[in-house]
Amino acid sequence: MSEQHLSATAIDAFELGQLHGEDEARARVHVTTCERCRGDLEALRSARERFEREVMPRTLPAVIRRHRRRGASLRRRLLVVLPVIAAAAALLLLLPRGMDLTPRERILVKGGEPALRGFARRGDRVFAVSDGAVLAPGDDLRFVVEPGGRRFVLIASVDGAGHATVYHPYGGMTSAPLDKAPRIELPGSIHLDAAPGPERVFALYSDQPLDAQPVLAELRVLGARGAAAIREQRVLDGARARGATAQGTFLFEKAVE
Prior knowledge:
Blueprint lengths: L4 E2 L1 H8 L5 H13 L1 H35 L7 E3 L3 H8 L7 E2 L15 E8 L2 E5 L3 E3 L4 E7 L5 E8 L4 E5 L7 E2 L6 E2 L3 E3 L5 E10 L5 H13 L2 H6 L4 H5 L4 E9 L3
Parallel strand pairs: 1-3, 6-14
Antiparallel strand pairs: 2-12, 4-5, 4-7, 7-11, 7-12, 8-9, 8-10, 8-13, 13-14
């Protein structure tokens, strides 16, 4: 068995065909010789197949119908997934185990630097959302946080139209508590609307809950400065002054044909 192992993100990227060149070749050789990583890859495939075969067809149409009956906003719908979906999806995001195949992948350590990561589903494809990624209307976006020992998180965004939204807890007024885990997949997903342009997502970590209203106000001010400002700004100074001890962010562009 190899002394090093593929990280969860590397295994997911390998399965989705998103590794190339030496990285792809190294991962392919590794999973043929490492029993643990081969088992992780097989578990990933099994979980995805079971999720798509048994869970998604049974739950997603009902969720969409329910939101439509309630007159949910066409701009965005929060897909409130059942616990079984969260359990199945969690298998797709195994904890990192060391081998660094990409510059962005890091080993998690207790009390380390917090981070925010995005994962999108487009049809049958699941992929990591890197900073500056181009997404499309209809994509479903999920969030994974690495709290680094922080107790609370508030996730909010501003889009190119200047709209500010609290994504976690969805529509909430204060930060949500975090489990004591190095990596947490947050429940639910965001169904992206057809509004084009950039959208920047912020994760605000703190040791006490933050009030969402001042954060939304700061995001609206940022949105009013235009697309270039949204693309460039990576820290909310007001949130830091109000008690955010760390921040994570990524930007995605929404392309509309």
